[in-house]
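Subject: Predicted fold for Nucleotide pyrophosphohydrolase, 115 residues

User T.R. writes:
Posting the sequence so we have a shared reference for the thread.
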Amino acid sequence: MNIEKIKEKILAFSNDRQWEEFHNPKNLSMALSVEASELLEIFQWLSLEQASNLTDKKHEHAKQEIADIAIYLIRICMKLDINLEDAINEKMLLNEKKYPLIDENGNKIEYGNKD
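User M.O. replies:
I've generated the structure tokens; pasting them so everyone works from the same file.
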């Protein structure tokens, strides 16, 4: 994925439509939430089996909503001058500390189902 090329495409699309005045972090975060809700709606009422085996139509719909989510997320990063790759790497380091594999006594920590 060439994030810089994607950012250029998103910015050009926005500028061509004179949407810059509307693309502030508040509005973009609300739009991101709406798109995430639209993705959620695809899976509403599906069983775990159905959710893992979407019809071609639902799969395409999910793909489009995921793209919308990514576009708004990247646009927010652009507005707030956040390097998404750096932010993800930093957050993963925090997650590793929050969810360690070994406890303070040297025992392996098991995450997930405990039957």
